[in-house]
Amino acid sequence: MSTSLSERLSQELGSLRESGLLIHPRVLERANRARTRVDGREVINLASNNYLGFADHPALKARAEQYLREWGVGAGAVRTIAGTLKIHEDFERQIADFKHTGSALVLHSGFTTNQGVLGGLLREGDLVVSDELNHASIIDGLRLTKATKKVFKHADPEDLRRLLSEHDTDGLKLVVTDGVFSMDGDVAPLDRLVAVAREFGAVTYVDDAHGSGVMGAQGRGTVHHFGFEYADDVIQVGTLSKAWGGVGGYAAGHQNLRELLINRARPYLFSTAQPPAVVGALSAALDEVQRDPSLMERLWANTRYFKAELEGLGFDHMNSETPITPVVFGEASAAFEASRRLFDLGIFAVGLGFPTVPRNLARIRNIVTAEHTREDLDQALSAYAQVGRALGVIR
Length: 395
Fold this sequence. Notes:
- By secondary structure, the protein is an alpha/beta fold.
- Helices cover 43% and strands 16% of the residues.
- The protein has 15 helices and 13 strands.
- A seven-stranded mixed β-sheet has the order 3-9-8-7-6-4-5, with helices on both faces.
- Helix 5 packs parallel to helix 6 (136-143), helix 7 (157-166) packs parallel to helix 8 and helix 13 (294-313) runs parallel beside helix 15 (374-390).
- The longest helix has 20 residues, at 294-313.
- It is globular, with a radius of gyration of 22 Å.
């Protein structure tokens, strides 16, 4: 007898519940800002990716309203039929200019961007060598291709060299890495990875979801930080939902990349175009980060202060180099309990355990933003000190 839908749902949910992996997202009752209201409690928010405070920024809301009134609620079609509005192409030129690349194309999310670009670019006979800690969207995107896939040790140029030397091909060779790794907060050594890729004629593909708006001059990203923004053998992809405060994804690089993706990227070909209000908000975000250098200055000042104070308290933040600041609690149960206690003290910070992160490295991932005040950070640090001592993580 076949399994019923009810049985399948009960089995799967029961399994998740027993393993402690069943998710119940907390609900924000106000805009996603440095201070917000979550599940009925006023909290300091260390859980969001709103690096520059753009999710509720007045300039972005004003541009969104302007585009909404002028262009309507939706685009009305996929881009290749009747959904490409002038504002879509204007925004893509704006991204290409900002990223210093030959072209850019906007898709619907960072996740679907990796699916679309990897699926549109790679074919049987190609070789992909991917960092072992790359984002799930890269892993899933590569699963959809017929390219030969190899995995190199995290941020290890020598292991990358070994794999490229052992697996030659007449097809395209692609080295794939995150720019900033979302769980540990470390930065890919692009200077060394690109050098190794070039030894073997490989293209470097950088998912800069957590680097765009954070790294490089005016937030141009990790590729810009390492000086490769004009290189035709480097492809940049990322999301528009983190530092940029909206939703969507982008691919930027060689002048012909955009045209190929328009014809081959399935998420682009089969999804209705972005709503005008979203395009307006994102366009304003790129303008604002270039107009106001204090945004990134505050982001990094807050980052340095928070990390230094955590170190002083005795916490391990895994030598994070970016605003992503993990605080290690070891066992998943300890990280989840710490998150609950912090929430009771008015700090919204989420615990992460296996399989999201390795066993014995369960943590709370904190992201400070440009919008946090010193008072916010001091209150969070005081709560961390109290919880860390109560759980025996620090003295």
